[in-house]
Structure formats: C-alpha cells, structure tokens
Amino acid sequence: MHLVDLSDTVCDETICRVAEGDILTVHDSQHLSATTAHGLIAHWTGSSEQPTRWW
Q1: Helices (H) and strands (E) in the chain, counts
Q2: What whole-number distance in Å separates Cα of residue 24 and Cα of residue 40?
C-alpha cells in the first residue's frame, strides 16, 4: 500500500479550505469529500466520465 499526501488539494501555504465555492472539499479532518475525490479521479485519469457510484 502506498499513501498519497493530498494536502495540497485543499490546502495552500496558510489555510486548508473546507469548501471551494459551494462544494465541500473535506468530509472531516482526515477524509476528502466524495465530490472532491471524484474530481481528483477525473483529473488523474484524464477522464470526463462520471465514476461508478459505489454507495
């Protein structure tokens, strides 16, 4: 297993944002929101398709 530090996804040099516009970026202090995670999947894979819903 490899851990990936995604702090720079929601944090800059001075603050970690809880929301970006009207979209929550984090679920709690250690978990990204599903919306943010899905956006990262699309960013990393270059896909514009919606990820499969698993919940």
Answers
A1: 2, 4
A2: 14
